[in-house]
Amino acid sequence: MSRQENRKNYVLDTNVLMHDPWCFRNFDGNDVYIPVTVLEELDHLKSREGLAGYQAREAVRTLHRTIDGCGRQCVSGGIALENGIMLRVTYSDADETHFPFGQDKNDNHILACAMQLKETSPQMETILVSKDVCLRIKAEICGITSQDYETDKLKADELYSGQRPLSISERSIGSIYTGGAKLPKNTEMLPNEFAVIKPLVKNADPIIARFDGSRLVPLRYENHSAWGLRPINAEQVMAFELLMDPAVSFVSITGGAGSGKTVLATAVALEKVLEQREYRKIVFVRPTVPAGNDIGYLPGTEEEKLRPWMGSFYDAIDFLMSSDKDAGRAKRAKRIEEGFQVEQFIDDFRRRGIFEIKSFTYMRGRTITDAIVIVDEAQEITPHLAKLMLTRAGKNSKFIFLGDPSDNQIDNVLVDSKSNGLVYVVERMKNHAITGHVTLRQVERSGLASLAEKNL
Questions:
Q1: What is the largest CA-CA distance in the chain?
Q2: How far apart are CA 41 and CA 306, in angstroms?
Q3: What top-level class would CATH report for the domain 8-147?
Q4: pTM score, two decimals?
């Protein structure tokens, strides 16, 4: 069968372009159609504040650059792109037979375009690509093949956890602490992956070693604390090791509610910036993906708008400053005695330029140097936004992505547990010596939180 006979028609929904502005370049050897209704939706969304507006503007800019780069060929007749892709913008003059669900919704107009295209091009299969499950179901009812956008979806059944159980000899265990131990034969590990080694002594705790790219080596920060905080389980020890190591420029930590992601990252950031002066500032970033109105509907300055979204950081700092564990530092003790106020603490350092609180909307074009950047709830962002964030990294910067990538913790309709920016960077960055990842499975917040995480 010839390549021409294998060609398909792909009709793209608005949410696919917002998820990945360059999506139309990933349909090699096929015809890609963008309904005019999609352009109208992007035009309406581009003036909004927050992530939705940013993603719509990125999609519009990408289309504009593509059309300009092709000499402004007629988009209705088709623009030839690389790898045999033909891009078209299509306008539907469908009749009532193409609107079985009515004409009052934009989704139905996009579906009508697909139905009409199937009729006018019966020799080619027509496929509607959408991240909207409801639209895909309606398409199947109408006899139109539909699919999710699969290009940047996680292909593995399980996300890389950053650790693995390992059995080695007593001699090899001793070698870990005297120059490093070689991996057993037929065993492969990734840089900065942790080995959980079963101890030879009965009922002893497992031994944790770190693979440095060539050998298993002991943990460097196992007996350290940060801002009075010490890890309280094995997985937190692994995460703490990566967070404290200045040679690891990107750390991702996944885990359920109460597993300690934010408090660990915040404690290390405070230690590195305020005590050790290893970095100049801390940048807190959080996507603003609400269940209702977004950041644009809130009054005030950027900081005032973001305050309702930053509860996890405020809670982490409040916990670290009010806890009586390891309260040896005179500054901390004095603040506690004087009646610590977390808002005042953050505002003081923010005015001095040591703390920054930002949303993704304000990151385009920035270069962040000499800073620790903590991105919380990273499961809410698209792979495109994750790339945008990491490409802001300047010299002497450390980026930390935190989140829970399970579907019940995602409110952004553009992503799911296998296509969000957090799982995307975990899988794409795991092979490099300056990156590391750990999954936290144990809930430490409280007995009730642990019970809820397991049973609800």
A1: 79
A2: 26
A3: alpha beta
A4: 0.85
